Amino acid sequence: MSFNLVLTVAGIGILVGILAMLLNESGRKEMAQAVTIAGVVVVLYIVVQSMSQLFDLVKSVFQLY
Amino acid sequence: MEIWQIVGLALIVTIIGVLLRQFRPEIALQLTILTAVMIFLLVLGKVKVIIELLQSLADQANINSYYLLIVLKIVGISYLAEFGAQICRDAGEGALATKVELAAKISVLVLAIPIIAAIMESLIRLMP
Residue A21: closest CA among chain B residues belongs to which residue? Predict the structure, then answer.
């Protein structure tokens, strides 16, 4: 389960990179920017969710309240 | 979770990260954060066992569990702060990382106040 999430993020990163490069080459700078920002937001969503999970677990294990 | 799985995960992420850093540094950074979170999530189950052992040992030695709780909290705070500061430093924000560490030190000091007060009290009691 944890492995899948990491590989998903890596795939999104590579996909966004290639798409942005293609759009840049075909002269659509603003579309490339939009694709980059969308990719960052999607990845940030995943990262923030798993970080909140981590913080909850750390709080319960070390009894930080 | 076994050690070879963690090492494999870290190696794969390192290779993909080197590739991603050339054209998408921001997503490479997020990939690193996600991997760090995942590895710690995998390890935390074992940390729980260690903490339970420490608690049972403290119970047997008749140590006040209040002090053990403080030490546990300090370990948690230092881990979280180290995690955040290291990520900031990796992304080139050294100043931010130093501030996070400063905040962690201050909160550890605040948590340690009861222990310092107890030491002072027993010192004063020892003095004639």
Answer: B23
Q: Which of B4, B24, B31 to mutate to test the interface with A (most CBs of A within 10 A)?
A: B24
In which domain, by residue range, is B85 found? 64-128
Taking the CA of residue A2 and the nearest CA in chain B, the distance in Å comes to 6
Mean model confidence pLDDT for chain B: 88
* A5-14 pLDDT tens trace: 888 888 998 8
- Can you tell me the distance from the alpha carbon of B18 to that of B77, in angstroms, rounded to the nearest whole number? 31
CB contact under 8 A, A64 and B42: no
B23 and B80 inside one domain? no
B56 domain-assigned: no
In terms of Cα–Cα distance, which of B40, B39, B72, B70 is closest to B54? B72
Q: How many whole angstroms separate alpha carbon B11 and alpha carbon A40? A: 23
Whether ipTM > 0.90 holds is no
Instruction: Test A2 with B73 for CB contact under 8 angstroms.
Output: no
Q: Which positions ≥6 away from B72 have C-beta within 8 Å?
A: A62, A63, B51
